[in-house]
Amino acid sequence: MVEPVAQSTNQAITSRFFVPDGLEELKDEIPKVLEVIARTARWVHPDTFRALPVWYPETARGITSYSAAYDRVLLHKKTTEKTEGNILAQKALRNALGATDSNNWTVCHIWGIDDPSFQKTNDIVQDRRYYSCIGNMVWLPTPLKGFTDAVPEIKLALRTCAYYLYRWLPDHGDSEMARQVALIKSGTIPIGYPESWPTAARSTLPLNTAPYSFPVQEKVRKRKEELLALLNSSAHEHFPRDAVREVLAFWNVAL
Questions:
Q1: Of these four, 67, 75, 76, 145, which has the most CB atoms within 10 Å of its CB?
Q2: pTM, 2 dp
Q3: What are the domain boundaries of the chain?
Q4: Rounded Cα distance, 136 and 134, in Å
């Protein structure tokens, strides 16, 4: 027979079960989580990034979706205009990795608006320059996606790795983003940053970086041909030619 724990009636009424902030609870575990991310994340090769940094400059999250011929708006249930969710970002990353779709993997945008309340509009992924930018994405096992959405230290570590891997940082007016850009430029390395990731003094590729293989090079070539054809054709009524040219000029992409 188990003896009940002695407790006064007053204690039972007044005592409370203390639960700390969830991020504080995980603070000491962040290096362990980063090690798991470092072992499992899939990164695009820097040569692939240099060949074609942005794959779908014609769109971004929330932008109206059109048919492949850009002659009509796509509709949801024949009534509501469809908008881009995250489909073409996923396609861009898979093509740049040379990978097929796989269960329980999720595309993670590395840079975005940091808002713990998740109330602000994430206008980084609504920016054509960054939405399908393969230097702004990493492929993660789906359960790890929550850490990259909610834990500031992990976001900063991924952003630091992307900087040293691809040598780019976003140009945006958000004050918190500007603070992090300055921090990364200063050479600061986050606590728990994996030793297998690159730094200014350590030129290395993260584990599971996809090669710039012939199939990937073919994907790059075909996508450039598609973009050039769309830009030069007058048949695609709704193709945003001016916006696409601006994005390609921003990234110095020659078709």
A1: 145
A2: 0.88
A3: 29-216
A4: 5
